[in-house]
Design brief:
2 helices
């Protein structure tokens, strides 16, 4: 007797693109978030901003240019 075939598993993958987050890109993302009013866009924006801060070794509580 033949065994029943198992359904193929769907793979959820996310493609990463090599994009540098510049202040202009950050503003565009914020504008898109406001226009779409989407919680998922907000989460993506916050994650991207956090990665940008880490990459540039900036403290989010210390605005750039005001540190002495």
């Amino acid at each position: 007797m033949a065994s029943p075939k198992k359904p193929a598993k769907a793979k959820a993958t996310m493609k990463q693109l090599p994009i540098r987050l510049t202040p202009a890109n950050w503003q565009k993302m914020q504008l898109a978030k406001l226009q779409t009013n989407s919680a998922s866009m907000q989460a993506i924006s916050l994650e991207a901003y956090d990665l940008w801060l880490k990459k540039n070794k900036l403290d989010p509580l210390d605005p750039q240019g005001e540190a002495e």
